[in-house]
Amino acid sequence: MSTVQDFGAVGDGITDDTEAIQHAIDDGNGHLEFPRGEYRISKTLSVDMEKRSRTSIGGAGGTAKIVMHGPGPAIFLQATHAKTADPAGFRPEEWQHERMPTVDGIEIEGRHPEADGIKIVGVMQPTLTRVLIRQVRTAVRITDRARNVVINGCHFYHNTGVGIHLDKLNLHQTIIADSHISYCRRGGIRIEDSEIRNLQITGNDIEYNNYRNFQKEFPGPEAEAETTAEIYVDVVNGTVREGTISSNTIQAKYSSGGSNIRFIGNGPEGDHRAGMWTISGNLIGSQKNNIHLTGVRGVIISGNYIYSGHHRNLLVEKSRNIVVGTNTFGHNPDYKDKELATGIRFEDSDNCVLNGLLIQDAQAGKHTVAKAVPIEREALIELVRCRRVNVTGCQILDGVPTGLLLDNCEDTLVSGSSIIDQREVPLMKTGVESRGAGKGNMLVQTRISGAIDSATSGSGIAHMDGNLID
């Protein structure tokens, strides 16, 4: 083991230790330790794996801090991996010199407006553990190409850019786990213009990643114009498939155009460039649209508690093969009478299933949170220009003004569900409304109760045996 102090670094927070630390990286024995201290640097510390060979960086169990006073990343991990993760695609020198650089137990703090945390390019098996990065632009940026990335037990906090940015990247086999990613202005985990496969996001606390916490540093409406999310996936260019978002807490404060989870899968060559994802076992809430999917194919949303969406708890547009099952859509009872009217909306989507949902509206039938934008909703579940959707085994409770709306839908089956207004003073006018030129829609073995005007209205839906209407 080498220490940076062996090569002349002082760690007093005043001396510029850049050259001494770079000397330690270049000429040390590969395992580089930062003893307790505050190490001021003014340029990027470059770890060139091809030249330097296997390298690890440690911060004495979190007692050491690197303070970046210049622009660019504090640490740059670079290598030459250019193929897939197939064992047959590796050159011997990659295993000999370039595999698994690690950064562990260290803090990076930015003191320059263009300072970043860690940049990774062309690396096989980069591993970040117990790393704290704060007050930079982007905490971790991975670009160009990487394979088998592990980010575990880290803290990315209060950064003006992104927590983890997968940008213009070809990436397979990645795990982001057990980390705290919060108060980053442009998003918690953000994917743009990339080819991504096999991405697991699990066991994290990802919250408050939007512009609201930076209004002093970035004033004006242009700061609000950029849409963001705790997990933001934009593949207008590229494709993102084969992923899991599980067992996370994903929360926010409302922001204009914001989401907790946002997938944009429609590009110039057509839709469905994102898909084959599962979203399960998460707590998701308190954004404009908690989950917002556009142009995706093959997403399963199950086992989540999704609550207090200002506009919609779930909004799906131009998508196919979406399964939404065994979730609860509701409120946070800690806020008592400060409720947000919940809702689900599907537009221009085909071959979807809503199964085993419990969705309950605000008892007042409207937002009761101060300064919340008034709702513009026609039903608790809205299906608009959709085809081949099954709504099965759901409880749709206390909807306003309608429980379930079918607007110009085809071949929709509503079965085995309860659409009930259970309030002492009912507010639901209609249980099921069918609108427009719908056809092939069926209502089977469904209980509708408490509607003020009528249980069902409109044409284009056939009432089959077994419905219970009162």
Characterise this structure.
- The protein contains 4 helices and 47 strands.
- It has a 30-stranded parallel beta sheet that branches.
- The longest helix has 10 residues.
- The protein has 470 residues and is mainly beta.
- The chain has a domain of 140 residues: Single-stranded right-handed beta-helix, Pectin lyase-like (Pectate Lyase C-like).
- The chain is elongated.
Helices, strands, pairings?
Layout: E1 2-3, E2 12-16, H1 18-27, E3 31-33, E4 37-41, E5 45-48, H2 49-52, E6 56-58, E7 64-68, E8 72-78, H3 92-98, E9 102-104, E10 106-110, E11 115-124, E12 127-129, E13 132-134, E14 140-152, E15 155-159, E16 164-177, E17 180-184, E18 189-192, E19 195-202, E20 205-207, H4 222-225, E21 229-234, E22 239-246, E23 249-251, E24 259-264, E25 274-280, E26 283-285, E27 289-294, E28 296-302, E29 305-307, E30 312-317, E31 320-325, E32 328-330, E33 344-347, E34 350-355, E35 358-360, E36 381-384, E37 387-392, E38 395-397, E39 402-407, E40 413-415, E41 418-420, E42 430-435, E43 441-444, E44 447-449, E45 454-457, E46 461-463, E47 468-469
* Rg over C-alpha atoms, rounded to the nearest angstrom: 25 Å
- State the secondary-structure class: mainly beta
In CATH terms, what is the architecture of the domain at 331-470?
A: 3 Solenoid
* Nearest-integer average pLDDT: 92
Number of helices: 4
CATH topology of the domain at 331-470: Pectate Lyase C-like
Largest sheet, in brief, is: 30 strands, parallel
Beta-strand segment tally: 47
Q: Give start-end ranges of low-pLDDT stretches.
A: none
Q: Beta-strand percentage? A: over 45%
Instruction: Write down the CATH class of the domain at 331-470.
Output: Mainly Beta
N-C termini distance: 77 Å
